[in-house]
Amino acid sequence: MLELLNFFDGEAASGAAAGAGTGTGAGGWITWVILAVLIVGMVLVMIIPQRKQKKRAEEMMSKLTVGAVVTTIGGIVGEVVDIDEKHIWLLTGIGENKTTMQFLRQAIHAVMPAPGTPEYEAEQKAAEQKADEVDEVK
User: Fold this and answer.
1) Using alpha carbons only, how large is the chain's radius of gyration in Å?
2) How confident is the model at residue 82 (pLDDT cuts 50, 70, 90)?
3) How far apart are CA 12 and CA 130, in angstroms?
4) Are the C-beta atoms of 74 and 107 separated by less than 8 Å?
5) How far apart are CA 124 and CA 58, in angstroms?
6) Element (H or E) spanning 77, and its range?
């Protein structure tokens, strides 16, 4: 079975075919090194993006304050009215048809800063500049 993995070592394959012993040649360790590098690479490819995503989610939850406008994973947009450790209450609707809904904190997809805060103003400026750049290109 191990000789199937020794595709880099021609001598080990020809020796096994000729009936010479089952010892691993000089290329036996190369196969194990390559396998180890591949396994480490696969683990890194899986773990690093997961850590980045977790960091972004924690950063987004730190922006979550009363008055912020949020979008849920279901697409509901509303203003945060109250927050506790597990839940968030959103005010949504138009005019007299406003209602308050309760969601789990994990159901929040995106957070916009509360209007009037410095973060909100900076975000609005960035959006205007981006729109101006698009207009200039046209």
Assistant:
1) 29
2) very high
3) 62
4) yes
5) 23
6) strand 77-83
- The DSSP result for 94-137, as a single string, is STT--EEEEEEGGGEEEEEPPTTSHHHHHHHHHHHHHHHHHHHH
The residue to which tokens 């994973």 are assigned: 73
Global confidence as pTM: 0.54
Amino acid, single-letter form, for residue 74: G
DSSP state at residue 57: H
- C-alpha 77/C-alpha 101 separation (Å) is 11
Which residues have CB under 8 Å from 97's CB, separation 6+? Answer: none
Contact 24, 6 (CB under 8 A): yes
Contact 70, 82 (CB under 8 A): no
Q: Are 55 and 47 in contact (CB under 8 A)?
A: no
